Structures
1.
Amino acid sequence: MADKVKLFVNGQEVEVESGKNLIDAIGAVGIEIPHLCYHPALGADGNCRMCLVGIEDGRPPLVPACKTRAAEGMKVQLDTDKIKKIQRDIMELELINHPIDCPICDQAGECKLQDYYMKYDGQKSRMTVKPVLKAKKMDFGSGVVHDQERCVLCARCVRFTRLITKTGELGIVNRTDYARVNIFPGRPLANRYALNVVDLCPVGAMTSADFRFKQRSWFLTKSKGICRGCSKGCNIFIDHNREKYKDDVIYRFRPRLNEKVNGYFMCDAGRMTYKQENDNRLTVALLDGKETGLNEAVEALRRAVSQAKKIVCVISPNNSLEQMFAIQKFAATCNAAVSGYSDGYVKAGDGDDFLIQDDKSANRASFALLGIDASKVGFDAAVNGADLLISFQNDLTLSLTADSLNALAGNCKLAYLGSNMDACAEKAAIALPVASATEDAGTLVNVDSILQQYAVAVVKNTPAFDMIHVVSQLGGEVKNCFEARAGLTAAVAALKGIDLEQVPGEGLALTVSEVTNVAA
Amino acid sequence: MQVKLLSARFDIPDAHKIEVAKEHGAYATLDKVFAMQPEEVIELVKASGLRGRGGAGFPTGLKWSFLPKNIDKPVYLAVNSDESEPATFKDRYILVRDPHMLIEGIIICCYAIKSQAAYIYIRGEYTTQVKALQAAIDEAYAAGYLGESIAGRDYKLDVTVHRGAGAYVCGEETALLESIEGRKGQPRSKPPFPAVEGLYGCPTIINNVQSIASLPFILANGPDAYKAYGTEKSPGTHLFGISGLVKKPGMYELPLGLPILEVIDKVAGGLRDGRKLKGVIPGGSSTPVLTPEEAQTVTLDYESMAAHKTMFGSGGIVVLDDTVDMVKLVENLIYFYHHESCGQCTPCREGLGWMLKIVKKIIRGEGTTADIDLLTELCDNIEMKTVCVLSAACTMSTRSYLNKFRHEFEAYVSGGASSQTAM
């Protein structure tokens, strides 16, 4: 626990963490100091001047809160007429050359300028001269579109490319009110985290080409989720909306703060994985490629299971811990072999030292917890002589060549439970739709052995059954997620003593010591 | 009235050449300096009462003593030769006519602050000056006054000339450091102050050219000889640049403390015949203007200027007679500071442009009384809300014209085009 200091805000004594700047320290106890340029991940720059606060008996008496550390006995003034006037004056100056085009701006509803105008400014415009005209809809590359007129020159985006990605594509060129955020000619944003500048931008200057003009932010339901783009498990917001007479659709993923996993950021590839939740979905059951009623298809698969001599259940590294457990139990009841073979999900060398991992699946670490073999040797042995292979959302076309998959399909019947009409669903003799990741709840263990959970975020007009339910219809003994969790804590040594219904929001680190502690 | 301490060698032909300069006393103080302890040099400069000649007038010796003791980092000296304040033209004389006086001063200063590297940041437009200065530095290296062992002593000192690229704000000491480091010239937030964390993160002293050039005289003749000139709190002499509507504009070395009107009359030849004094800018464009009545009692020293709510500044005196249109002067003034704002802080970046447009509107005859009031309020709203004092340089001076010559602004508002000047 960090040291505490006592200081006064507007004459009221508060206890805050020492060593932090005033924005963070006082913000932690619920008192807002308005700021545009400061961001905890990018440090203090001190250019917006919105966080100027008074320090009673201080030298100097007026300081930027972002650059001032909380100190014992400090008397911070936020509500004096002088400070309120400064906040109003700075807001006025921020807005004189701003286009105030909120009705057509994507940031509207989550814009600091809007919020601060309502809270700290509220005066009528005194601008009677022509504003500075600047460039609009500039393509900065990587799906980032820049509007210079909306920009407040806080340099968050510039600092992001310098401090976080260290690629430095952005800079502020020129000075005075000719200053503009820009790229070097012919050198667009070219890093795999570029879209974070859209989130970082406190105003509508940085917009995502993908999201632009799709939805007003206040219509979006912002549900919590975990990204499945790779094994990092970045925390995200799933922004979705059911428009009138339409289905619930996801419009974007945004990073959600988790200091232990992804901090404030996520990669662009992960951000775009929302598309597979919307598009190319497997919505109906297929028997030999033909649409069939779900009950009929389930019945067909039950029959196949009961008639088969040797069954192989192929688990996906994207399945949740609960799903894996339910599938394992099901496999045991029908005496099936289990494989987690999924080498195709790993792109060796693709990862970096920040967030992106080689392994493009979300839950491979759970294989180890449940003792699921994912080797090619194990897979080959399992499929040898098998006459029914059920893939649980494992797209085998990623891991096997077309020839070997065709050879496999010639020897045994392929069944597939999945949420997308991917190549494996097309190949399968029986394909059953199940709920996708954002429509289901579950537990994931990431590459750093941090256990995280997600809840149902999206509910479609015609919801697909979740996988555990479909597996139970096939004859599995686990009926739902809760049963699976109860079973998991009882059966898995590393999870003993962990209440899977009460996992903290920032996740649980499954460390060696924790496991041994529990055992003792 | 004129004296010749700093300008002693200015009129000697070829005094910029080392052999001529040495004949007339250059580098003569070094024996004395190296016989002293660095701390003694600092004490001596403190005793002389020398104040920084860049504009702020901070005591030079005191500034040096702010360096942290027992540091394991190198200490740097940065000589501010950005001289960009409008109406200021004193350092350029030193650079061209007596660069060895500056180099000698640098050696003294570096010895006192235990620095082995000095940078001279010179404004980009000073092409003649940079050539003269570099030639002098080359001569000093060749003669053994700079380099591995200075004048045969076990003391190393390198001097590097760094040319600016034409930004007024780089005369601000931390923007100057940023520029030397190769970054965009934008002032840094203080603290940390440069004496603690300056150039390349190391303790750095930044002094004006004239401050450094004053050191050889002080070392050669002692603090009392220096204090014999000027006033008690403003000792010494200053290179005053007198410009504007006088008969003999130019650079004059004068002791501090002289009455400003007397200097204008006797040194600069007085106003043109038949003209009346309308105002005096006492120390560069950023200092608040003085009315003729105020000028009656002002003397050229720091304390008198402060008492009249203006500043000594850089000693660039601009004399304004009754042909000057103060509104257009303010337009020109704001144009300059707007153009030179680094664009970092919101108030300065957005506000100065707004002020400029309002003044232009008033000049076009489209202004209202509310515009004059808004202009006055904007001065308050912008001033001291920024990282550096560039915006204050604009607002303090603009406010003085608005307060003291408001009737001229009102004439524009009520009467359209200018009719209030004698032109």
2.
Amino acid sequence: MIYKANIRPAWVVLLMMMLCLLAFTMIKTSDNSSPVNKKIQAEQETSPQVDLTKFKNAEENEKCFKCHGQSKYTYENPDSKKIVNKRMYGELVMNRDVFYVSNHREFKCTDCHSEDYGTFPHAGNLRMEAIATCIDCHGGDEKYAKFEFEKIDTAFLASVHSVKHNQDFTCWMCHDAHTYKINARSNEILKETITYDNLICLNCHGDLKNYQLLTDKAKPNILKKHEWLPNQASHFTNVRCIECHARNEDTLVVAHHVVSKSQAVRKCESCHSKNSILYASLYKYQVSEKIQKEGIIKGLLMGESTSIGPDKSNTLNIISLTIFGLTILVIIIHAILRIKK
Amino acid sequence: MNHQTERLYLYPVWIRIWHMTNALLCLILIITGLSIQFSNPTTVVKFNAAVTVHNLAGIILTISYGLFFLGNLFTPNGSHYVISVKGFIMRLKKQFYYYTIGLFKKENAPFPINEDGKFNPLQQVTYVVLMYGFVPFVIISGWGLLYPEMTVYSVFGISGLDLTDLLHITAGFGISIIMCVHIYFCTIGKNPTSNFKSMINGYHESH
């Protein structure tokens, strides 16, 4: 037996694999290409402080933020003339930086709250003031027509949130008027929108205190309830809760018709297929926006990954079917010629 | 022309076991892979079942490929994959001529199988591309998809996961095409079934 001294391909592949592993480790350790990482980096480089001079109501609002802007407030006791430091009740602390990037950043506090809050101490009966809901201000307003508040209201009224809890469940349970900001239409980073939206759900479903505001039932353990889900962490960071737990329609308007757990999506094919429900809302919007901005090729390729498995490219299918068809055709012709000869 | 049948023991037990395992795994991986790629609620193999079987078969294929890789690093079998560059194009042309014309003129194979050369030049180049190109790519990208959090987030602005997915299905498609051609070419032997029998009993029959 002649044993060839030439280099075996296996050695070449082994060497290449080791080099690739080295390169991968280097890329991975210095990988800050994740949009979330980039944003954190950008935020670190720029000052996070909000410039209050940009907001016409900022000065007026400072009268409230003076006490409600941090965890403690100070006042002078009119009888003893002593300066008193008191701890502000957590739920009444409003972060300026968060408020001034929220949807309602141009508002005066007293646009929604009573003018009587201008006096201190606040009168006790002010606690009973009725707070407007989204539809009270935005309903029937042409300026906000694209957000389809009426449609959202109808969907919300049909949801388990509204049906099970009646009047107790208001818009504010999920959308804090002081902090809520629209995400899907303004944030190009899909993962951030997903995280933001999921945190809204987790605010109650991941926090016993908030969960038990509306029910005496024990809060289900979300991780255990979703144990059946393969790659659970990956699903939680790449998919919004509402994709499976709400009735989605072919629109960007966030699905508010949250359904009962028995109606939640459990079939993998619902997302991992050509007709994936994921392509109905957020993901479709993100892709179409990117295509508009960057052109079709970049728009389709430069996006963040949505779901693994579904066959997304018709062009690839046509190319692969053609190659496969030609291969089989050549084989058949070759076989027929062999048989005939 | 010599019509006497020669029996050469070319395929030791380890190669036959590896080959059978590989063939079975590739079939399972192609069927489940297509089910995942073209999944919909009416697919024959349900998505979650297809994913579980695909993952399991992929893990076994990695072990099986590891054994093949080590076997070809350290045993004489690896020498069959060494391509001598000198005159290789000419040898390829000769083999191509045989498959497209010579075979039909009942000419003899230009590179008859013997102990020193199990593969003809076309087989050699195909098997090298398959076993040292497509298969490592499909395995590495497969592990990247199994642990998506390990995958690089983006490569030159393109989603790393989508790129891994594309690499995986392209390599998988390449393997599927080569497998079809390989099975057909196996019918070119002493008789259409002799090469299949060789992979069971280890003896190559030539005449």
